[in-house]
Design brief:
globular; mainly alpha; about 0% strand; about 70% helix
């Protein structure tokens, strides 16, 4: 169970880390189909269908590039940083970023390869969760980080992605992420 949850976090992290290319989609599809073999089919089936649709597009690379640009680089898009969602000023590298850095330091983590993103980027936080839930020894750390950081803002990010007029591929990513995080809330509620 821990490994499956860790793989979900890792997939979501990768999907939000940077722009995907058509060549990435086949790997994502294999990853999602493998995860869907278990009890995860309900969470993944809509996303699997989106991946299949995008793999059929001849202009998928251009479409993914344009969508990523509109969603993450243009003012009409979203800012995938905890500070942009939770700080009063809605600016980057504010108090939530400081809190995440302190949490990572407390866990003995030092950022080396972070896709070039600050510590409070969605991909970095989700990657941390993949590590934490992948180990029984770190499950309590993951639970704490989930409640202090993940659930406090990533669902809002995913809703903003889902509802953005430019979202197509990322609408599927957002719906998958929302379903998975809802399951995680139930998991952590049971373990409380």
């Amino acid at each position: 169970m821990h490994t499956t949850r860790a793989r979900h976090y890792a997939l979501l992290s990768r999907l939000l880390a940077d722009q995907s290319r058509k060549s990435d989609l086949a790997r994502y599809l294999a990853w999602a189909e493998d995860l869907a073999k278990g009890q995860e089919k309900r969470v993944l089936q809509p996303f699997i269908e989106i991946l299949r649709t995008w793999l059929q597009k001849e202009d998928a690379d251009q479409g993914l590039q344009v969508e990523f640009g509109h969603l993450f680089l243009m003012p009409v898009g979203v800012k995938p940083y905890e500070s942009a969602y939770r700080s009063k000023e809605k600016l980057l590298m504010q108090e939530p970023w400081v809190e995440v850095k302190k949490f990572f330091k407390k866990c003995g983590l030092q950022m080396k390869d972070s896709y070039g993103h600050p510590e409070d980027h969605a991909a970095i936080e989700l990657s941390f969760m993949a590590h934490a839930v992948g180990s029984d020894a770190e499950e309590d750390v993951g639970k704490e980080f989930f409640h202090q950081h993940i659930i406090t803002w990533i669902p809002d990010l995913l809703l903003d992605l889902r509802d953005n007029d430019y979202a197509d591929f990322f609408r599927g990513v957002a719906e998958y992420g929302l379903l998975f995080l809802e399951a995680e809330k139930k998991h952590y509620h049971k373990t409380s």
